[in-house]
Amino acid sequence: MMKLIYRDKEWELAHGMTIRDAIIKIGLNPEAVLPLRQGKLISEDNIGQENDVITLIAVVSGG
Amino acid sequence: MLKCRKCGQPAVINMRHHRLALCETHFLDWVPARVQHTIEHFQMFRPDERVLVAVSGGKDSLALWDILTRLGYQTEGVYINLGIADGGYSQLSQSKVEQFAASRGGLRYQVVDVQETYGWSVPALARHRRRGHKTCSLCGLIKRHIMNRIAYEGGFSAIATGHNLDDEAAVLMQNTLHWETGYLGRQSPVLPATHPRLARKVKPLCLLYERETAAYALVRGIDYIYDECPYSVGATTLFYKELLNQLESRSVAAKQNFYLTFLKAKEEGLVKFVEPAEVELSTCERCGQPTSAQGLCAFCRLWEPERQTAPENGSELPAAGDVDG
User: Fold this and answer.
1) If you write DSSP's letter for every residue of B270-318 in order, what string do you get?
2) Interchain contact A39–B (C-beta under 8 A)
């Protein structure tokens, strides 16, 4: 399993799919978020690994 | 794993609309190069000109300041504290600007506190006036006036703002759906100075997706204000950005094509918008800034009722004869 975190919400999903597909699966638009793994930006084309914790940052913010 | 096109290392970003995936290092090279191209293509400013960067503490304006500094341009920041108390928004935004400037070896910037300078915060003024002025339109008017004043006093050639391609495409969509031909005619990466007291307005990030400016800020370790302005909740621009992102996810490069084909069509004269009759600008009797109205400019008229009822906490409303307003 892998975990996705966005704002104050968390989702547990089966690993083995791309982060992009996982983002779509939880109902978000991949254009509107950036995925971080251990605080580092990663491409959404990466495959989610077992025990991955992916934090999603909203692209629109501030200003 | 997706690889960087330049070096084969793992990519941190895949920019589908450019068919370009890059690693951290090459993305941090690519962004300033893209901005440099934008500055040159639209003839925004030259290296010998001084540029005032309007910084809000958000990712776009801080990324812009960072990029222009890396490119070697002569910049100075200006932060306008609007006095938005909800969640400590303005104070937090200001602290982000201060921290950023300090972390880059003490970049030069000015802070203009609206409440300290004029006696009222923007939300308080909006509440007080009630009629006719919403907080966001007041905010825009006040920021434009202050930026023009600071640019004039400091002898800056251009005022640079952090508008990205998503901002521009959202405004374009909104104006197109409403056939706002006046706004469409004026929408441009560069607004030339139309008066000796007005600086050029430029948008050097207008060819970068918002996703790219956010990624740049993250990778560069820029600590920006993550929360949106409390008054922007439900703003129509955010709605149009969502719509455009839905289009983008179905049709790669939709946002870019929408905006760039508009600019190209205008440049090549394929679309023409009737220019409003040229208005002769006069000088505001109070602050000296150019205005299309007779007597007082919109900014000075805004404060006029408050001149009689200003609170006692150090109001410095523009006085007759003030050059700066």
Assistant:
1) SS--PPPPPPPPEE-TTT--EESSSSS-HHHHHHHHHHHH--TTT--PP
2) no
Tell me: the pLDDT tens digits for A12-28?
A: 999 999 999 999 999 99
CA dihedral sign, ordered B155, B112, B218, B159: negative
Would you call B228 and A31 a contact, using CB atoms and an 8 Å cutoff?
no
Q: Is some CB atom of chain A closer than 8 A to the CB atom of B12? A: yes
Task: Indicate whether this model's pTM tops 0.95.
Answer: no
Kindly provide the ipTM of the predicted complex, given to two decimals: 0.96
Distance from CA of A12 to the nearest CA of B (A): 22
- Report d(CA A18, CA B143) in Å as an integer: 43
Is B226 within 8 Å of A62 when comparing Cβ atoms?
A: yes
Low-confidence ranges of chain A (pLDDT < 70): 62-63
Contacts of B177 (CB under 8 A, 6+ apart): none
| Continuous segment of H or E residues that includes residue B159 | strand B158-160
Per-residue pLDDT averaged across B9-35, rounded?
98
Q: Is B82 on the interface with A (CB under 8 A)?
A: no
The CA distance from A19 to A32, in Å, is 13
Are B219 and A43 within 8 A, CB to CB?
no
Mean pLDDT of B43-56: 98
Partners of B15 in beta bridges: B20
